[in-house]
Amino acid sequence: xxxxxxxxxxxxxxxxxxxxxxxxxxxxxxxxxxxxxxxxxxxxxxxxxxxxxxxxxxxxxxxxxxxxxxxxxxxxxxxxxxxxxxxxxxxxxxxxxxxxxxxxxxxxxxxxxxxxxxxxxxxxxxxxxxxxxxxxxxxxxxxxxxxxxxx
Length: 151
Ligand SMILES: [Zn+2]
Known about the structure:
Layout: E1 2-10, H1 14-22, E2 28-30, H2 34-37, E3 44-49, H3 79-91, E4 96-104, E5 116-121, H4 127-130, E6 137-142
Parallel strand pairs: 5-6
Antiparallel strand pairs: 1-3, 1-4, 2-3, 4-6
The protein binds zinc ion.
Zinc ion (ZN) binds at residues 2, 53, 55, 70.
């Protein structure tokens, strides 16, 4: 089916995130996926973007070659776009912002995913890390200097 990069946000309203994402050509909507929701914390929101799938984007195309149907979208968000957006979100007050890279065999709302979680302090995040996103691991960018309990 398709790769999608979905997002988990904490401490930043969706409307504010979308203001920041607009310049990166990304628009997020809340994604009601029961499987993922049960694995999130109370202050976290699961978000999908409404662009084309990520099969052909810089972050999404790494592991499986896109079919012609999912050809590379030159206007799709790049690794630099994601890095800039994450930094903007953290500067705007987000507590955490995570990216989840997953190959969906069902719709993004009905897919069952077992999500691993990997905290990364925002100061250590690089485009190289974004280009090596592991599948099914929520790479959760955290504010630097937070207590371990907040990761
Ligand atoms: Zn696709």
